[in-house]
Structures are given as structure tokens and as C-alpha cells.
Amino acid sequence: MARNNPKVSPEVAVELVDLARQMRQLLYGGDGVPEWGTKFSRIEADALEVGRELSRLIMEQSVGEQAERLPSPALAEAGSGELAAVIGTQSAVIETTAGEVQWKQPKTRLSQARRDFFPSGQSARR
Questions:
Q1: How many domains does the chain have?
Q2: 19 inside domain
Q3: Domain encompassing residue 94
Q4: Does 20 map to a domain?
Q5: How confident is the model over 29-76, as pLDDT tens digits?
Q6: For position 110, what pLDDT does the model report?
Q7: Which residues contact 89 (CB under 8 A, 6 or more apart)?
């Protein structure tokens, strides 16, 4: 089996060590050590579930907060140069390998063109 070495910054690596310790304490109680005799397959399954949920939460928080910080250039209509007005939000959902990610996508309106659109720019997309 090939070993997958993630490329994270040294700062992230240090924080992940602390986070792993905290998650083990939550999973196994006390000092974070699984009960003697716990099969490795159970430890692996626990770790993968925590990792998937952490991944899903990072994605969900990232796209959600990115959508809340819609830059003005993203509101410009190509061609006409009209600036759209933000008129609300609409739920967006994407299925990832870590699970479903949901966020509120800004909904905008071009008054001259009389149409709604969802600015794309640098937002999350596949």
C-alpha cells in the first residue's frame, strides 16, 4: 500500500498533533488511549471518520465564509458593466468524498437586465 504524505505547512502540522491528541481524548476518554485489545481496524475506522468530518467541516466553513465576502468585481456583469445588487441567498449543496457540504450562496439581481444570477468569480466550484 502506497503511503500518502500530506503536504501541510509546519504550522499546520504542529496544530494537527495537538488536535489529534484532543480527538483521541474525546474518542477514548481519559488520556486518549484505546482500551487494551482494541483492534487496529477499529482505531483506523475511528480516525478515518474523524478525518472525514474534519475535512467536510473545513470545506463547509471555507465556502460559507467565502460566499459571505463577495467582492465587488464579482458583481460586475460581463459585457454591460452593470453592477448587480445582492438580494439574498440561496442554499447550495455539493457532495464530496467527505460528505455533503452546504452553504448559502449569494443571490444577486441585475436591475437593467431584469435577471437574477449567482456570481461565480473565485468561489467554490467543481
A1: 1
A2: no
A3: 39-117
A4: no
A5: 999 999 999 999 999 999 999 999 999 999 999 999 999 888 877 777
A6: 78
A7: 67, 104, 105, 106, 107
What confidence score (pLDDT) does residue 113 get? 56
Q: 40-68 vs 10-28: helix axis angle to the nearest 10?
A: 120
C-alpha cell of 102? 452546504
Judge whether 2 lies within some domain.
no
- pTM metric for this prediction: 0.76
Does 113 or 24 have the greater pLDDT score?
24
Cα 112 to Cα 49, 71, 77, 80, 100: the distances in Å are: 49, 20, 11, 9, 36
Asked whether residue 53 is domain-assigned, the answer is yes
End-to-end CA distance of the chain: 29
φ, ψ for residue 96, nearest 5 deg: -115, 175
